[in-house]
Amino acid sequence: MSSRLFKAPFKGLFNRSVTSVAMALLASSLSVALLFISSCGTPTSKGLNLNIDALPEIVLWAWERNEDLRFINTKKVAIAYYAGTIYLKGDYAFLHPRMNPLRLSESAVRFPVFRIENADANNAIPERGSLKRASELVSEYVTRHNAPVVQIDYDARLNERASYLSFLKLLRSQLPTRTSLSVTALLSWCLADKWLSKAPVDEAVAMAFSLGDGKTTLSRDLKGNVLNAGVSRQSLGACVDEKETNQVLRTTGVTPFSRRLYLFSSKPWSQKRLSKCLEDL
């Protein structure tokens, strides 16, 4: 998700020693495991035999909060759940896992989303060691939980694009062949700036929300344009809370051309919120 929507789980992570951080994260990992087991069973993904084209056309992002999504129609809606944030700094990377319960029905198709953050105070370009470790953290999780898809959420700056492409190539080489790789993409990456065409990914999700100043020119930017990041599958991400933006998406005809619609909510999901969002789009 956009960094404007994301709040780091704890501040000053890299101001502590490597040992103390590792111990804290080990404790966090144990805690999250207990949360999953006690609240919703294992997060092991359903739909292992599905490829990305067979997933439902509606996907709900279940971000870092207590969520109960047992109300969804599992034949029509899938869940992309926040699995954790990977922090990159220098030559190493750490995973801070999901800390809140996620309740799903047994039949729900689900897959993990990993947020990537550059934790260097000076925004130095991530080094290869941190990229390698980050790709290992994701691939190990995917393999352990039999995920049919994994999504990466990283707002790479212009000077980070080369390192991000390197990370995606490393990750692709480590993922099971059956696992599809999806990425979120800033809206500009899906208009004139199609640099993701070089990435070994199966899907790009255009993030049409939390646009800041870009919101005022959205209608003009989309008029006569097709969202296309240069990858084989183009999907759309929208937020239930941004009615004006959703109105523009609907009137410009962007939504019908998207392969899949991803939906974000700033508040816990409910049947009412989901139904209202689908009406708006």
Fold blueprint:
Layout: H1 18-40, E1 58-62, E2 67-68, E3 77-89, E4 92-97, E5 102-103, E6 110-118, H2 128-145, E7 149-153, H3 161-174, E8 180-186, E9 203-207, H4 218-222, E10 234-239, H5 243-251, E11 261-264, H6 271-280
Helix pairs in contact: 2-3
- Characterize the overall form: globular
Which regions have little confidence, pLDDT < 50, spanning 5+ residues? 2-42
**Radius of gyration, CA atoms, in whole angstroms:** 18 Å
| SS elements, strand count | 11
- Strand-residue fraction? 15-25%
Major beta-sheet overview: 8 strands, parallel, barrel
Distance between the termini: 20 Å
Order of adjacent strands in the largest pleated sheet: 1-3-6-7-8-9-10-11
The helix/strand class is alpha/beta
Write down the overall mean pLDDT: 82
Compressed to H and E, one letter per element, the order equals HEEEEEEHEHEEHEHEH
DSSP helical segment count: 6
Relative helix content: 25-40%
